[in-house]
Specification:
26% of the residues lie in helices and 16% in strands. By secondary structure, the protein is an alpha/beta fold. The chain contains 17 helices and 22 strands.
């Protein structure tokens, strides 16, 4: 039976960020205005009308700060400057003003677990300038049996290899959980925290509407930096995730800065459970509004995690339902709903069918994303059903994380050549999400008049924005209809969630309930016709009158009374 969890219209804790739909932009690949092959801020500003027509409320902008681009902007060398390839601060202000004029908000990416090694703080720290000596983690190493230098502990990097690099200038090792050009800040140092408070206030005073906090659960390292479990990837993740003072640091940041503004905050947190996430959320936690967890993103991972080239790609719908439903019902706080982003493969290639049923399955994924409980995040290109591409060799990759995973696998003998890893790479690479946005069937998909920084997916003549907008039955129009539907019905935002048929191998069905308003969502998450009979579900639908709110098929709608649902059919009913 529907859960009695106190969700009624009289008790709604209304917040604008709960009711919003967020659209994520990867600036380098979105739209190039000046023909240099790199997406930029003026290009985004020119497309604000497009975003408005789609119906989104918030734009999440991946980093555009000054950076040497070792990790595509997540290595920041100056938090208060714009990278020249993206434009100027005046261009950024024009984007903010244009978004606000369209009643849309701007969410900035904040990367404060680490900086670039070209940041002024790191340069001063490596020279041991007074006041900067311990802005980062510096340690002496050891020696192996042959007298070769060894790192201070066994931690590994998310980018492959050890999490330590020896610096000749300082004569010590420095910690970097990511690329060696991304040294970790030492949050134990109060001066570091003061710097971060200052830069957060600086951006909030400019009128932005919030932050996505990158890798934020790694900011507190345990005392003594002990060795980690070598069976985990990367080694040490079990000890440097959710460190001993992470809640103190985040609460201090919230109390001193974020609490003074009407903004939204989203913390990216790998290695996070429902229970752990709840500790960070709301006034009773650390003040974060929601978190990005990765449990559903690991549903198809190998035994040692996503970057393990052995045992990847297999997943089951019942397991995805179990994970999703825990976050829908057990989280003490608000949820962030997503299926893809700049760090994930394309969702229709991963969770749908990017061949025969690309359109139907892309619409099904959109239906799922926009009718479950939480703030939905749509990644650029999802709204037209963009797919994965292929990478013939290591040189075709740009992503340092995938390159590191390949190199680690070769070095460890888990593979003898790139050819043996080709399937793993073409399934899992983050670069799939970073191919340029496909605007039209013009050269380079209308992304640039020059040579694009990264190859455009070869299917752009068929899959592009212009074609999608011209076709009333396209994936794009389905997203817009879903966004409108969510905006019209509080039940799809604030309503309770109840899973039906939890063990069904092909069907994902659930209800949303708020007071007397009820919706039923049925998804045939398969390429086979599948009967759906809800008599076995623990919900009484006898004598119920169903009206169809939205379907992803144009020619008629199937009723949930034992009739076979068509491949990837997705229907939202009101009853």
């Amino acid at each position: 039976m529907p859960s009695d969890d106190g969700r009624s219209s009289q008790a709604l804790d209304r917040r604008w960020w709960k009711e919003a739909v967020v659209y994520q932009i990867y600036p380098r690949s979105f739209d190039d205005s000046d023909g240099d092959g790199i997406g930029d801020l003026p290009g985004i500003t020119e497309r604000v009308g497009y975003l408005d027509s789609l119906g989104v409320d918030v734009v999440w902008l991946c980093p555009v700060y000054e950076s040497p681009q070792a990790d595509n902007g997540y290595d920041i060398s100056d938090y208060r400057s714009i990278a020249p390839e993206f434009g100027t601060m005046a261009d950024w202000k024009a984007l903010l003003e244009t978004l606000h004029a369209h009643d849309m908000r701007l969410l900035m990416d904040l990367v404060v677990n680490h900086t670039s090694d070209e940041h002024e703080w790191f340069r001063r720290s490596r020279r041991e300038e007074v006041g900067y000596e311990d802005y980062y983690y510096w340690r002496d190493g050891g020696e192996d049996e042959e007298g070769n230098p060894t790192p201070p502990n066994n931690w590994g990097s998310f980018m492959g290899g050890p999490a330590w690099t020896y610096d000749e200038v300082r004569g010590e090792w420095y910690l970097h959980l990511f690329d060696e050009k991304q040294p970790d800040l030492n949050w134990r140092n109060p001066d570091v925290r003061e710097e971060i408070v200052s830069l957060v206030d600086w951006w909030l005073e400019k009128g932005i509407d919030g932050f996505r906090l990158d890798a934020i659960n790694f900011i507190s390292k345990p005392e003594g930096l002990p060795d980690g479990n070598a069976d985990r990837h990367p080694t040490g993740v079990d000890v440097f995730s959710h460190g001993p003072r992470v809640h103190d640091y985040l609460r201090e940041l919230y109390d001193r800065t974020i609490s003074n503004y009407d903004v939204m905050t989203v913390g990216e947190m790998g290695e996070t459970t429902v229970e752990l996430a709840g500790e960070y959320l709301g006034e009773d936690g650390d003040g974060l509004d929601m978190v990005f967890h990765f449990e559903h993103m690991d549903v198809d991972a190998g035994p040692r995690g996503r970057w393990d080239p052995g045992g990847w790609g297999e997943w089951s719908l019942p397991e995805l339902k179990r994970i999703t439903s825990r976050w829908q019902t057990d989280l003490e706080g608000w949820n962030a709903q997503y299926l893809g982003n700049h760090d994930q493969p394309r969702i229709v290639s991963r969770f749908g069918d990017d061949g025969r049923y690309r359109v139907e399955s892309a619409k099904l994924l959109a239906t799922f994303l926009l009718t479950t409980r939480g703030t939905p995040f749509v990644y650029q290109g999802e709204e037209i059903g963009m797919t994965n591409t292929t990478f013939p060799d290591l040189d075709a990759l740009d992503d340092p994380m995938m390159i590191g995973a390949v190199e680690d696998a070769l070095a460890a003998g888990r593979a003898g050549s790139f050819d043996e890893l080709r399937g793993f790479v073409n399934y899992q690479s983050r670069d799939h999400a970073r191919t340029p946005m496909q605007w039209s069937d013009d050269e380079h998909a209308g992304f640039t008049a020059g040579e694009p920084w990264f190859d455009v997916n070869g299917n752009y003549p068929e899959i592009n924005v212009a074609a999608a907008r011209a076709d009333e039955s396209s994936v794009w129009h389905h997203y817009r209809d879903l966004i409108d539907l969510r905006g019209e019905h509080d039940v799809l935002v604030y309503g309770g969630y109840d899973l039906l048929l939890p063990d069904h191998e092909r069907v994902y069905a659930y209800t949303r309930t708020l007071d007397d308003e009820r919706m039923l969502i049925v998804l045939n998450w398969s390429g086979e016709p599948t009967p759906v009979d809800l008599e076995s579900a623990e919900v009484d639908l006898d004598g119920t009158d169903f009206s169809v709110c939205l379907s992803n098929y144009e020619d008629g709608v199937t009723a949930p009374d034992g009739q076979p649902f068509r491949p990837y059919e997705a229907v939202v009913y009101r009853y």
